[in-house]
């Protein structure tokens, strides 16, 4: 494999298994992050080796740049219209394949792309698999206008859900507020655990300054968890509970 640095073997295993799902002629959504970047490299190699004709929509400027540089045909989501398959990473995956995403600040475009796909496949290493979402800070993309008021409203929403006092952190990069591809900021919610993810998702979506939160509920169809030895475990929503029980010792 001609990657610049040695890729994480678990992420590479998950990437290879996901890229094996790609068929000639597919319209693909490409995720963002370190795992998705490995997947893009694996995909580009397969496209080159097999001469596949694919149309790809990227979930971030960074992924568009990488995919284009590797020779993949990248178009806007509007040009392609609808996607057959999106492959993306995640920050947390729970037993119902609900996710936290947005550690890289790309969850808004990622959610738009995933929802515009017939199928969303998540690729991850075993460290991303959790019993319950929330240890990873939940990213919430907010518009710059009225940021302080939005923070107050987010705090009130957390209070109503008995999550009061949890830190609400404005994400920083190089000493300034982080700016997303859509020109917004990110609030990271240090929740520790999320007792009722659908209620939290509804409450956050009801705040006008919130553009999108990083909870992906009922969106992911398949999670491919790579292991450091190069093997993978595939988890689907229907059988995920059993698969986790069977594999628990080896997976976590
Ligand atoms: O905003 C970033 C995305 O949601 C990523 O897919 C997620 O943070 C996982 O990234 P990584 O594969 O680097 O852990």
UniProtKB/TrEMBL annotation:
Catalytic reaction list: aldehydo-D-ribose 5-phosphate = D-ribulose 5-phosphate
Pathway noted in the entry: Carbohydrate degradation; pentose phosphate pathway; D-ribose 5-phosphate from D-ribulose 5-phosphate (non-oxidative stage): step 1/1
Keyword line: Isomerase
EC number: 5.3.1.6
GO CC term (a single one): cytosol
Residues forming the catalytic site: 110
Biological process (GO), any one: D-ribose metabolic process
Gene Ontology MF terms in the entry: ribose-5-phosphate isomerase activity
Positions that bind substrate: 32-35, 88-91, 101-104, 128
CDD domains on file: RPI_A (cd01398)
Alphabetized PANTHER family for the sequence: RIBOSE-5-PHOSPHATE ISOMERASE
Its job: Catalyzes the reversible conversion of ribose-5-phosphate to ribulose 5-phosphate.
Family of the protein in this entry: Belongs to the ribose 5-phosphate isomerase family.
Subunit structure: Homodimer.
Protein name (Swiss-Prot/TrEMBL): Ribose-5-phosphate isomerase A
Organism: Paracoccus siganidrum
Gene: rpiA
